[in-house]
Structures are given as C-alpha cells and as structure tokens.
Specification:
There is one protein chain. By secondary structure, this protein is of the alpha/beta class. The protein is built from 18 helices and 13 strands. The chain has a five-stranded parallel β-sheet with strand order 11-10-9-12-13, with helices on both faces. A four-stranded parallel β-sheet has the order 2-1-3-4, with helices on both faces. The protein has a four-stranded parallel β-sheet with strand order 6-5-7-8, with helices on both faces. Helix 7 packs parallel to helix 10 and helix 13 crosses helix 14.
C-alpha cells in the first residue's frame, strides 16, 4: 500500500531532464502537448530553452471542451491543424496527453486510429504528461523511456548490434561498456548519438539490448520482447564488486571475457588518490540528482579517504546495503530529504570550503565549487570513476556561477541533440 503523501518541496535546481527533453532524443520527431494552458507553461519553456520550438507544438484544452464533451475532436483536429501548417511533415509525432484525458475516459485509441488513417506517412507515438501518476504504476519518467523506442519496428536481427537503452547521455569513449562491446567485435548504438530518423528506425535490427538505469529497465524489456531478443540490465554502481559482476555478466552475454579487472581497479584507485591529494579533507556533499546511486558514491569516496559529510537524497531504495554501511561506519554523516517542506527554510552553516557533487547539494550548501552533472551523465563502471575523479578535481579548483547554472533547465540537452 502506498504511503499517504503530503506537501513536498521542489528544489530550484533545474538541471534534471523532463519528458520534453527526453522525447527530443527521437531525431526529427515533433512533440505535441495536449493539455490545459497552466500545464503548458512549463513544457513550452523547456522547448524554448532547448532552442527547439520548431519541433514543439501545443493544443490547449479549455473549460468548454470538458463541458461540451469534445475532447476527442479537439485532439484529432488540433493535431491535424498543426501538421497541416508545418512546412515539412515530420516522420514521427509524439503526442502527450494529460491527466484530464484519463480522468474523463477520453477514447485515445480511437483518436490515434483516426490520426494514423489520416496521416499514414507519420509514426504517431502516445506519450503522457500525467504527474498525478508519478507514485503509482509507471511514473512519467519510466513511461517516457518506454515511449522513446515505441516507433521502432522489428527488422532482421543483426547479432553484432547492441543497443544501450534509456540513457540521456552518450557514454565516454573509453567507457567499460564500449570497450567490452568492441572487444566482442560488435557495435554499440546509443540514442543520443543518432541524428536522423532513418537510423533511429534501423535500431529494430539490434541483437541485444542493455540498460544501466532503473528507469530504463521496463523500456529495455518491452523493446526486447517486441524484437524477440535478449534484454540485460547491468545496474549503475560505484561499488567495485558490483561493477565487476555486471561487466562479467555483460561479457558472458557478448560471448567474450572481462579480464582487465585488476588493471581497471588500479586506474580507478589511482584517479581517486590523485583527486584526494588535491581536495584533501574538504567536506563533500553528495545528492541524488548527480547520480542514481548517491549512497554508493558516498561509500566509495569515504572508503578512499574523502570527507563525506552530507547526502541530499529522498530515498535509499535499491541502496539499502550502502545506506546501512554508511550509517554504521561514518560518524556525523547528515542525510537530508530534499522534498521535505522544512528544506524550504533550510540553511547550512558551512565551516570552510565545500565541494558539492550535484546541483541540489550545491544549492543547499550555496557553494560555487560543484560538479555539474545529472543522472550519471556519460559515466559507467571503473572508467566512470576515473572521469568523475577528474570532474571533482576540476570543480574543486574552479568556481562556477551557482545561480546562473541552476537556472538552466535540462543540463546538457543541447550537447545531446
């Protein structure tokens, strides 16, 4: 049973990706949001800040549409009007319906049937802006990761093609996953690196789908079932054993071997040691915005001598072991829930310099020294630890404009699209 929800606080750190940003990863696709004007304000700003308003449209629902019962007609004719006005017909249209459609029992299946009959040259994908569902069934983030791949149709399978599913950022070139895939003689495809719709459709020939984000597992499993191929989840982690186990598992599925563990571990240890020599005993604050595994990250840093003093995360779900380890071993470690209403007036009295890992940690501690990354960025595995160590060192030595950075919505999206 779900626990009752009360008032929640939203931290004014805007770097996280929304369903608008994520949907734009489908190359050449056009997004159409169908909802009330008040709800449209935020998504319009997201598209504008991405400089992609040419790929974005809206259909506003007004009160009379609800009372007149013409919700289906509004959706069909509103979308048709937009498509007829565009200079070039997009190959794919992502239609985002909203909470009111589902509250009223709008016949969305019929709406999409009519649109597909009317525009047979367009792939219509049903997407959802339903924040009221964020704590039941699949939340909007998980659902959007699934819809990212909904227009991909099965093609003859190519066993030498591997798709990394659900990530907003392409991995670094020397990433552990890429190294293993290359060693196996296969090619890795990542949606952020695909820039045209024809190549997007070719993903239907993938021979294996892997995912490393929890929010992407359902997307990977659904697409794998559609293509009748294998799906493998290798969860993101900063723990050496978990990374090793995941890479061994991946190597086995790729029909190759992972035999560079000692070398990879030494590289990670050396990178952390170099970072520690520069950062010293400076207090470090970690948040759940920079990574999906903040407690795993905090444990890694503490085990390598860093002064981890603060964690800003709403939940330790999936990280119970690391959470309990930190509780038992790190004295004085503070853990704050970002969504707590008390955080609205939260003030942290810093005693000296603080290095923040993530935008929320930077906001709460008001430090200009912070690593600006969201949702694991381009990192994974031992190479990810090496790269993060470099980011920490650079961020420790260089001030950032805190307010200006936090005002940017959807960190990194311009570089991915």
């Amino acid at each position: 049973m779900l626990k009752p929800t009360g008032l929640e606080y939203s931290v004014p750190a805007r770097g996280g990706w929304t369903i608008v940003h994520v949907g734009m990863l489908v190359p050449e696709a056009h997004e159409i949001f169908v909802c009330a004007a008040g709800c449209l304000r935020g998504v319009v700003l997201s598209a504008a800040e991405m400089n992609l308003t040419d790929r974005f449209s809206t259909v506003a629902i007004e009160e009379h549409n609800v009372t007149d019962g013409d919700m289906e007609d509004l959706l069909i004719e509103g979308v048709s009007d937009i498509l007829n006005r565009l200079k070039k017909r997009p190959p794919c249209v992502l239609i985002y319906t909203s909470c009111i459609h589902h509250f009223m029992g709008t016949d969305l299946d019929d709406c999409f049937r009519v649109l597909r009959d009317r525009y047979p040259d367009v792939d219509f994908v049903d997407c959802y802006m339903t924040p009221t569902m964020r704590k039941s069934t699949l939340n909007p983030d998980k659902m959007m990761r699934k819809r990212l791949y909904a227009a991909i149709d099965p093609l003859p399978t190519n066993e030498d093609e591997v798709l990394l599913c659900g990530n907003c950022f392409a991995l670094t070139e020397n990433n552990d996953i890429k190294v293993l895939v290359k060693k196996a003689g296969k090619k890795l495809f990542e949606l952020p690196l695909i820039d045209n719709y024809a190549d997007y459709k070719k993903l239907g020939s993938s021979g294996l789908i892997i995912s490393n984000l929890g929010v992407a597992k359902d997307a990977a499993d659904e697409l794998a079932a559609k293509l009748k191929i294998k799906s493998l989840q290798i969860p993101f982690s900063f723990g050496y054993k978990e990374i090793y186990d995941n890479l061994k598992k991946l190597a086995g599925v790729l029909c190759t071997t992972y035999d560079s563990y000692d070398e990879d571990r030494e590289r990670a240890d050396l990178a952390l040691k170099k970072a520690k020599e520069i950062i010293g005993d400076t207090k470090i604050a970690v948040d759940g915005m920079i990574t999906t595994r903040p407690f795993s990250l905090a444990r890694l840093l503490y085990e390598h001598g860093f002064n981890v003093g603060l964690i800003y995360s709403d939940s330790a779900a999936g990280e119970e072991e690391d959470f309990e380890w930190l509780k038992a071993n790190v004295k004085g470690l503070e853990n704050e829930k970002c969504i707590s209403p008390d955080m609205r007036t939260y003030k942290y009295d810093a005693d000296g310099k603080i290095l923040a890992l993530g935008q929320k940690a930077a906001y709460f501690t008001q430090t200009p020294y912070f690593v600006d990354m969201v949702e694991n960025g381009p990192l994974y595995g031992f190479d990810g630890i090496v790269e993060l160590s470099k980011m920490m060192t650079e961020s420790f030595l260089t001030e950032k404009d805190l307010k200006k950075t936090l005002d940017i919505k959807g960190w990194g999206c311009d570089s991915c699209i």
